[in-house]
C-alpha cells in the first residue's frame, strides 16, 4: 500500500508542496462543470488498494469545493482504495458548531455526516474553530495545531518578544492565548467584546496591561477583520508600541484587506490553509507561515501507523 495524494481545485499549490515533501507526485484528478452547474470529477489513475489522501480546504466557493471533496472521496472509495483520508486544512461550516438560538442548524455536524457517508475513513484538519467538532464524527479525526509554528515565528521575527504581551480578541480564544503565553513565558491580556449582531461589535474592554509593550493578537481565523482591527485600535489606545496579528485561517472577505492596510498593525501573519498569494500582492502587511511540512509529516506518520501527537508541540523540519 503506497501513498496517493490528490487535490481539489482550491488547494493545488499546498498539495504540490506536501507531495514534494513526501517525495511523490500529485495524483491526476480532473474536475469540471456541466452546463447546469453539476460537478464532474474524474480520478485519472488507479487507486485500488492504496492509501489515498485528498487535500481540499473549505474556502473560496465553499459549497462547490465541499461538493468536489465529497465526490472525490466517493470516487476513490468505490474504486477500491484501501483507505481514504480527507485532509481539510480549513474545515467548512466550523463556526456553526452549536444550536445557539431556536431553529438554528448545527451545520458542522451535517458536514461531518456528509464526509462519513461519502466514504472518508479518517480526517486531518488544522485548528478547528471548536474542538468538539471532532465528536461529530464516528471516524478518527486528527486536529493539528498551528501553535508551534506561530511560536517559532514570534521568536524569529518579533523584537524583544520576551517583553511582549499575547492578546486574545475575545473570551473564546483565552485558552489558545494562555497556552502560547505559557510556552513563551510572557504575559497575556484579553479583550472582552459585546456584539449587537453577527460581524458587528458594540463595545470592547481590555483586561490586562499592554502599555509600552508589543502586543500580539492571536486568533484561529479572521473573516471580515472588523473585530481584529478594532482590537488593534484598542491596544494602540492602551499604549501598545507595536501590534501584530497571528491567525491560522486568513479568510479576508469583503474589504478586509483594505481595513488591514489602514490599520495600526505592523503585520498580519497567517498560514497557507487558504491560498494567500493574491492577498499578499494586495496587502503588504500579510505574512505567511507555510504549514505544508506539518501536513506532510501528519500524512507520513498516519501512513506508517505512528503517533501524530509529536506535531502538537513541535514543528517538523
Structure description:
It is a single chain. The chain has a seven-stranded mixed beta sheet. Strands 1-4-5-6-7 form a five-stranded parallel beta sheet, sandwiched between helices. Strands 2-3 form a two-stranded antiparallel ribbon. The mean pLDDT is 91. Helix content is 31%, strand content 27%. It contains nine helices and 14 strands. By secondary structure, it is an alpha/beta fold.
Beta-strand portion reads 25-35%
Count of DSSP E strands?
14
Output the structural class. Answer: alpha/beta
Helix content: 25-40%
- Uncertain segments: none
Shape from CA axes? globular
The largest sheet, given as strand count, sense and whether it forms a barrel, is: 7 strands, mixed
Amino acid at each position: 500500500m503506497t501513498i496517493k495524494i490528490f487535490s481539489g481545485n482550491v488547494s493545488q499549490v499546498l498539495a504540490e508542496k506536501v507531495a514534494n515533501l513526501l517525495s511523490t507526485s500529485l495524483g491526476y484528478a480532473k474536475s469540471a462543470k456541466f452546463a447546469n452547474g453539476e460537478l464532474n470529477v474524474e480520478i485519472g489513475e488507479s487507486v485500488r488498494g492504496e492509501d489515498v489522501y485528498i487535500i481540499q480546504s473549505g474556502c473560496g466557493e465553499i459549497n462547490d469545493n465541499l461538493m468536489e471533496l465529497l465526490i472525490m472521496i466517493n470516487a476513490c472509495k468505490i474504486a477500491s482504495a484501501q483507505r481514504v483520508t480527507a485532509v481539510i486544512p480549513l474545515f467548512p461550516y466550523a463556526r456553526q458548531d452549536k444550536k445557539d438560538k431556536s431553529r438554528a442548524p448545527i451545520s458542522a455536524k451535517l458536514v461531518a455526516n456528509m464526509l462519513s457517508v461519502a466514504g472518508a475513513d479518517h480526517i486531518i484538519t488544522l485548528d478547528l474553530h471548536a474542538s468538539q467538532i471532532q465528536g461529530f464524527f464516528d471516524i478518527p479525526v486528527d486536529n493539528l495545531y498551528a501553535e508551534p509554528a506561530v511560536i517559532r515565528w514570534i521568536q524569529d521575527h518579533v523584537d524583544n518578544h520576551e517583553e511582549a504581551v499575547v492578546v486574545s480578541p475575545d473570551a473564546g480564544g483565552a485558552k489558545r492565548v494562555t497556552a502560547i503565553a505559557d510556552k513563551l513565558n510572557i504575559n497575556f491580556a484579553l479583550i472582552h467584546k459585546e456584539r449587537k449582531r453577527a460581524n458587528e461589535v458594540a463595545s470592547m474592554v481590555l483586561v490586562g496591561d499592554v502599555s509600552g509593550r508589543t502586543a500580539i493578537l492571536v486568533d484561529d481565523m479572521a473573516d471580515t477583520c472588523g473585530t481584529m482591527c478594532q482590537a488593534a485600535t484598542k491596544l494602540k489606545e492602551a499604549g501598545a508600541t507595536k501590534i501584530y496579528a497571528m491567525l491560522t485561517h486568513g479568510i479576508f472577505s469583503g474589504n478586509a484587506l483594505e481595513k488591514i492596510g489602514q490599520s495600526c498593525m505592523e503585520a498580519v501573519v497567517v498560514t497557507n490553509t487558504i491560498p494567500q498569494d493574491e492577498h499578499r500582492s494586495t496587502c503588504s502587511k500579510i505574512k505567511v507561515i507555510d504549514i505544508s511540512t506539518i501536513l506532510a509529516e501528519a500524512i507520513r506518520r498516519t501512513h506508517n501507523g505512528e503517533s501524530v501527537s509529536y506535531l502538537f508541540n513541535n514543528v517538523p523540519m
